[in-house]
Description:
The protein is α+β, with helices and mostly antiparallel strands. 14% of the residues lie in helices and 29% in strands. It contains 8 helices and 49 strands. Strands 4-5-6-7 form a 4-stranded antiparallel beta sheet, with helices on one face. The chain has a 4-stranded antiparallel beta sheet with strand order 8-9-10-11, with no helix packed on it. Helix 6 (512-522) packs across helix 7. The termini are far apart. The model is unreliable at 1-24, 113-117, 147-165, 168-174, 528-540 and 592-596 (pLDDT under 50).
Amino acid sequence: MFCCFFSVVILLSFVHQKTNATVPDFYQNKNDRIYWGGVLTNIDAHSFNALSENYAVDSDNAYYMGSIIDESHSPSFELINQYYAKDKDTVYVFGRKIDVIDVDNFEILKISNKTHFYDFFSSDGSSIYYCDLKFSNKLPEDFLFMDFHILEKNERVLFNDKMCSYFYISQINEYFIEIDGVDLSSFNVLNLFFSKDNNNVYYKGNQTQFDGKTFEIIDNYLGYYKDQNGVFLFDDGNFKRLNIEYSNSFKDIGCNFQIDENNVYYKFSKINGKAPMSESLEFVNLDNGSYCVYLYDSESVYFWDMDEGYFIVIDGADKKSFRSISATLSKDDNNVYFNGQVFFGARPESLKVIAFNYLKDDRNVFYKDKLIHDADPVSFKRAYMDVFQDKNHFYRNGEVLTSDNPIFMKYKYFSDVSFNSEYHHLLQTLANMNIVRGYPGRKFGWRKKITRAEVAKIIYLTWFSNIEFQNGKCFSDVVNHWSEEYVCSLQKIGLVSGNINGYFEPERKITFSEASKIFVEMFALEKESLRIKLQTDNDNSNWYGKYLNALQENGIEVMKPYKIMTRNNFIYLMDQAKNFSVIHDDVIYSPYSVEK
């Protein structure tokens, strides 16, 4: 009687807690087998209940992410939220025990903030916890958060209570540092690691040498800071003072440039020689997103030669109309400038940047600072990758590509065929032989369906172009069709045939079974052996079965027989054909051996 009553209590408790979590890859009950990513063992499937995506119970144990929570008490186990759970003795976060003093008074601290970080602070009325870590015996009402920051998976937080300030860091181990001697009335968080009060600056909770009243962060990413005593670089765990002449006026102006009242610095190194006057130094068009190599002061415009590390005065530049175009190019109303020097011949009023160091005006085309002779600016445009063209030529690196240049072949055809494609060389070869052509925009058109007439043309021009054209009325529906000579030539040597009504249907899309017949016959592949069992839809009793078997036995992947061929599918067969030769009238034709 007692056992039955106890079982009913457990069952009712499970029903009360059930959340119907059926999220794939989390807890699921299928055919009395429990899954969490994979099948879990030693679980009582009949009493199993998923409380959330991660927490679950059965009659004997509680589970987190499919693993037993040691020493948990299943009958009293209940969910607090998606992270926390508890039983009669213990509170758990992420399945880990929290050694709380008072389970009944445990609560998640309701701290108002727009981020979830504070969700992991809790209290049992006597102590404060972060996740499963106890760090303070202060009462919750004495506890105030100052600020916090999250960086990827490593959380760092600075906060204080009414008595002390703390620095928290979670990397491999979680721990807290109480910041000694802090002035709570002026304490302020600066960033992930720095905080300060009116007297001191703290780094990771430890007091530094900086003065709290005058401390400034110049570049936190690179590790540059300053106060009234100088400019410092954080290097190898220490703050090292730099040789800056006027540290009080030292500031960063962006793009790796710094100034003080009398000097200009690049990456915190003083620039020697001719440099702009620091008190009036500005970037040219910096607000418009220009490159940070053009600057001016009250007297001149300058180009910063980054490689050499010095400024070039741009003689005669008009400051009012001067603007930068690229890292090397600039112009004003009078001139175009390349690396700070006048670019003679380029017209600023019509100058346009194309790409890959090409630019043009209304009269000429230039590559970097050199004129491309005879290039047509009206038709000049990018052809593909770093190759350009006008109505007369193709260009690469500012030079004309001639027809005997191997790079010309590489770039001339088909913008949608990658150079890394296994079919790239084949397609370029066929295009150079005028066997295949593309579509507008120099597209090969991989997914376009291919017709019976197109296949006849490609096969004839690839292997049989030395055979005399056969024209005539081989099929009534190819008379006066553009493919008539190709189709009739292949029909004469027995490679193509018509339907039962005697029509060739030149514009009909070709199927794989039709293409396989042509290739098997053309290469005289053995087609009687049926040792390879084909798929059901490749039934050997059909007319095409022997042809598909022949392709398979010769290592060519077989498609469904009634699949409509795309240009991509047909090029695959063409590529496989490089392993075979055509024999016709006792003449052996190697693949693609006949050039037009």
